[in-house]
Amino acid sequence: MAYVAVKGGERAISHAHLWLEEERRGPGDVAELSLAQIREQLSLAVDRVMVEGSCCDADLAALAIKQASGDLVEAIFLLRAYRTTLPRFGFSEPLETARMAIRRRISAAFKDIPGGQVLGPTYDYTHRLIDFKLAAEGGAPEPAVVAAEPIADRLPTISDVFSKEDLLQVDERSDGAEAPFDLTRDPMSFPAGRDQRLQALARGDEGFLLSLAYASQRGWGSTHPLCGEIRMGEASVEFTPPELGFPIELAEITLTECTMISEFGGSMERPPQYAKGYGLTFGRNERKAMSMAIVDRALASGAEASETPHAVQDEEFVLYHSDNVEASGFVQHLKLPHYVDFQASLQFVRRLRKEWTARREAELAAAREAAE
Amino acid sequence: MSTLADASNRETSLYNFAYLDEQTKRMIRRAILKAIAIPGYQVPFGSREMPVPYGWGTGGIQVTAAVIGPDDVFKCIDQGADDTTNAVSIRRFFARVADVRTTEATDEATIIQSRHRIPERPLENGQIMVFQVPQPEPLRGLEPRETETRAMHAYEEYGLQYVSLYENVSAYGRIAATAGYPVMIDERYLMSPSPIPKFDNPKMDMSPALLLFGAGREKRIYAVPPYTRVRSLDFEDYPFETQTWEDACALCGAKDSYLDEVVLDDDDHRMFVCSDSSHCATRRDAGFTGPMSGHELARGEDGDTA
Lengths: 372, 306
Prior knowledge:
The complex is a heterodimer. By secondary structure, chain A is of the alpha+beta class. In chain A, 42% of the residues lie in helices and 13% in strands. Chain A is built from 13 helices and 4 strands. A 4-stranded antiparallel sheet of chain A has the order 1-2-3-4. In chain A, α3 (35-41) crosses α4 and α4 crosses α5. Chain A is globular. Chain B has 8 helices and 12 strands. The termini of chain B are far apart. Chain B has helices at 2-9, 22-37, 58-67, 85-97, 146-154, 159-172, 201-204, 277-285, and strands spanning 43-44, 73-78, 101-102, 111-115, 128-132, 183-185, 189-191, 210-215, 220-224, 230-232, 259-263, 270-274. Classes of the chains: A alpha+beta, B alpha/beta.
């Protein structure tokens, strides 16, 4: 009966989990997915789980996706819960994304920029026609043509292009600065520094940031962004162990970086120039990197704004609500029993109704009397 | 892939006692000590991602993990009952990662983690009550900004809260809060008691037990030390009052406990039973009976009397 079902028990939970496991595996006559297949053939899903899971480990992300039956928010949660048990032994050196081994680099601000536009592997300009050939499974694709000359070791960034004219806001170097804020160790605090903001955005839900960025473009806190540069490729991660005193290379990771630029009209202290919004993700995740850059810039403009900012410019609104692990947990906690609170509310509403009915009847009686 | 395959062979015993690593426990204990030193003040802490979802008790679990020791006896309730699914899940978690003795008996427990209730049996000296808190900020419903509410607490500026209660009185003829009823701690900090029914509010006042509140998603810990004054807000002409029922518990006949309403059929038949399952079972064992004694609800899931 209903009551027992709500109360449930240890046995019900175990059995539910066995059933879930069966659902995850699906029919036994279909071959099981290997982690390598997920990692190599669902790589964009893996990339998203890594960035929002704040853990750059493609094997673990692939395992989480498999365990979560492809529910990426669930996979992100699994990866986060694992990540938090790992010891943290320090910070890497700042990544030199300017030295990234480029696979893709484009700028929408200029027809050409030094080093050239490099399209790379992209869905852009593909015709979104379902490719029924893929349903047939099999066959290696036609190999991509290799360029005659390699891409330069160091492609100038959009900042380099503007550096002579001082037209683009210059990032402050943080050499010798105190340790960066760590959102995984310290609670959110306001006003948020840029480190805290960018961490929150990097971990933030892609869909949420995409919609915020879109709303901003449509005028709800617009900063009129222009895509200064997107680059995707491999950057090396260096770490200086205290006992060595010099940096060693730990890994080479794939990153997508986006710089949005928007006009800044100038103020008493600062001449007119372009301000920057910044987005960075693990792997190939251009939609996320672009959205992040737009929201980063919008939040900076919100801090400068004199009037009430729009949602996208409001850092408490954006940073508190961008985390899908928090959001998913709290929205879904409504599934838990709430019958004690509901009983309290029910009592209250019943009492109000009783009073309302009595009042109404008295009024009707009075009206009848007056009419007679 | 060998690393992941290796990991699959390891046992869960590779997790530290009570799951969290010792550094994290120390960080949480520091927050708890600060919370005890400033009763009712919400202490920000570096809440960790737990293996259960946010909103499902991550704050309470972290507080329990930080204070539990091998000699503790752990009780976990949800809606007052030991056998609700999430309470079962959390109790099982601690039995697994901390290997502690668990109990359903309120008097045996040294740590009681709860969602939405305080047990009927008066708490005792030495007991710790750990509340799972979805929203630690009592003013959040009135002011969405954390920067604002922190300032309001700092200046002890609670006029907005009183205005809201007054608006209730003018709209409904009474204060409308039924659960999560705001309380003043030691006449200084306004505090949310978590969504316990206001029925339980008086149990906090001068309680001999230590009351700890953990909000994982919102990353806050707060506390009411033993023997602290806890005052439910009210007006002289609209004094604080708790819920009462016309019915007694159908199973044990208790007239002074918080009752759940159980829908028996779709013909408007209801029964009322104690929300505190341990309290009800203890009374039944002592021979108390209600109008529906012997009903199948009095039996546990394996058919034994719970």
